[in-house]
Write a structure and sequence with these properties.
By secondary structure, the protein is α+β, with helices and mostly antiparallel strands. The chain has 15 helices and 27 strands. A seven-stranded mixed sheet has the order 3-11-12-20-17-16-15. A hairpin with a 5-residue loop joins β6 and β7. α2 packs across α10 and α3 crosses α9. The longest helix has 20 residues. The radius of gyration is 29 Å and the shape is globular. The two termini are 24 Å apart. Bound molecules: adenosine-5'-triphosphate. Adenosine-5'-triphosphate (ATP) binds next to β12, β17, β20 and α10.
């Protein structure tokens, strides 16, 4: 057995060939950095979101969820800092690559290599001409050599208009993160659910950023999905002798790391990266990224930030509404601190695919297999008839598919010979194949009734067991709930070869 190195090209081509991810609007030449999830991609993506929601919302007593609208009141982005921090027109120097605010360039002193003085270097005050040659600045003010690009808007927010009139008062934005909805709904959620600190609000949904340099397949796109949690804590509380916000920050880092390991990412491909003090966002007390060794190298998979009370205070200031929590014990109003675990769905999907991809050699042939965690696998079971000319086999296989499909995504396929069908399912990560054969249904002309058993084949080991049709759904349930294959298969005979 050999492990193939997973390159981005391999994943892009598998994704297209097998219906995981297509380039958006491909027949028109594609849309920059936009991708469409195909029939298998949408299942994988939904599974990622589903297990995240189950593990972090459904199963926890201290979590609730929301689903907010993408268009929010424009003042949200004023309060959050997004409007002010990202709206400047920028120009880049083609030579030294320094970046300037276009509206500041003329107000800067500038460096000049003057041809009239054999190229001597001068620094000339803002707005003035060279005293020797009389030229005014046309090049980069810093290096004096490079041309500047035309001004470009570097605000990452997509701007649009609400309503029929395209005027300034109607300007609004597609949200660049899902987080703000949790802050502006803080009081609604607190009051309606009668919550006590600490508690968290989760949301999974689309975000939009007009990224200047998108790329690397679905790693960085302009439209993507996030799974974010805002976990509110009382900053006056102490847990294990530490400030509550610091304790919970560490807890969330551990829990998120454990989550990615649980669903199959290899420990060697994951690491934590602490943000340096000078790279911390203005609101953050501490930020730690979980990085994954993507085909493009170590890069951020998710970030876990301690955002302090910045957001609630900002929204309270701009809205005029109080966003506090009444601390019963201390009899005082307090602005909670918030710990934010923020993950990207598309990036998680890319990591899960990259980590699961294997090229193995089986009996002299190459087999491509996606060793996806069964809970994430887009198709849980493929039902395959051994002989598609036999009506009774085909009928039984369809009936089994229909029965299992009440619980899971299950497919029927009879478009190739069995070996080929297995390979196809391996390549998309289907953990179990069920084969219906002559033994299952017997030969009625000879008066045989068949054993009413089917063969289950497990993807990773390729081992098989004969399971009664009547027990099939329970066996699949047991396996998907995490029972090890040898333990379950050990109860049943192997197929006769
Ligand atoms: P980066 O530094 O890679 O731009 P970020 O630090 O700006 O990311 P956050 O604002 O912390 O990202 O967003 C949380 C998560 O959302 C990221 O860890 C990532 O998984 C995802 N994400 C952010 N921007 C994009 C994007 N353009 N395309 C896909 N996923 C994204």
């Amino acid at each position: 057995m050999s492990m193939g190195a997973t390159s981005m090209d391999v994943l892009v081509s598998l994704s297209k060939r097998r219906g995981f991810v297509f380039q958006s609007s491909e027949i028109y030449g594609g849309t920059g950095s936009c991708w469409d999830y195909g029939p298998l991609g949408v299942e994988l993506k939904n599974n990622i979101k589903r297990v995240w929601w189950r593990d972090f919302v459904q199963q926890r007593a201290d979590m609730v969820g929301i689903d907010a609208s993408i268009l929010m009141h424009p003042t949200v982005w004023k309060a959050s800092g997004h409007l002010d921090h990202f709206t400047d027109p920028m120009v880049d120097c083609r030579e030294c690559k320094r970046r300037f605010r276009a509206d500041h360039v003329d107000a800067l002193p500038w460096t000049h290599y003057c041809a009239a003085t054999k190229g001597n270097k001068f620094t000339i005050p803002a707005g003035e001409a060279c005293g020797h040659c009389g030229l005014r600045r046309t090049l980069c003010p810093e290096c004096g050599k490079g041309e500047l690009t035309a001004p470009r808007q570097f605000n990452l927010m997509f701007k649009t208009f609400m309503g029929p009139v395209e005027e300034d008062a109607a300007v609004t934005y597609l949200r660049p993160e899902t987080a703000q909805a949790m802050f502006v709904n803080f009081d609604n959620v607190l009051q309606s659910m009668r919550l006590k600190l600490p508690f968290g609000i989760a949301q999974a949904g689309r975000s939009f950023r007009n990224e200047i340099t998108p790329g690397n397949f679905i790693f960085r796109t302009r439209e993507f999905e996030q799974m974010e949690i805002e976990f509110f804590v009382n900053p006056n509380d102490r847990v294990d002798g530490r400030p509550a916000d610091e304790y919970w920050h560490d807890r969330w880092i551990e829990d998120c790391m454990a989550w990615f390991l649980r669903y199959g990412l290899a420990a060697d491909n994951l690491r934590l990266r602490e943000h340096e003090k000078d790279e911390l966002a203005h609101y953050a007390k501490r930020t730690v990224d979980i990085e994954y060794k993507f085909p493009i190298g170590w890069s951020e998979l998710m970030g876990i930030a301690n955002r302090t009370d910045f957001d609630l205070k900002q929204h309270s200031k701009w809205s005029g509404k109080s966003l506090t929590y009444f601390d019963d014990e201390r009899k005082e109003h307090v602005v909670p601190f918030v710990v934010e675990p923020a993950a990207g769905v598309d990036r998680a999907l890319l990591a899960f695919m990259a980590d699961a991809y294997r090229e193995e050699e089986v009996r002299g042939e190459k087999r491509v297999v996606l060793k996806l965690h069964p809970e994430l696998a887009p198709i849980k079971v493929a039902v395959l008839p051994l002989l598609k000319k036999r009506d009774d086999i085909v009928r039984t296989a369809h009936a089994i598919r229909a029965d299992l499909a009440k619980q899971w995504r299950v497919v029927y396929d009879d478009t190739a010979a069995i070996g080929r069908l297995y390979r196809r399912q391996d390549e998309v990560g289907t953990p179990y194949c069920v084969t219906v054969d002559v033994q299952t249904v017997g030969d009625s002309e000879r008066g045989e009734t068949g054993d009413q058993r089917v063969t289950i084949r497990e993807r990773n080991s390729m081992e098989q067991a004969r399971v009664p049709i009547a027990e099939l759904a329970l066996v699949i349930r047991e396996l998907l709930d995490g029972a090890p294959w040898p333990q379950v298969a050990g109860r049943y005979p192997s197929p006769r070869s």
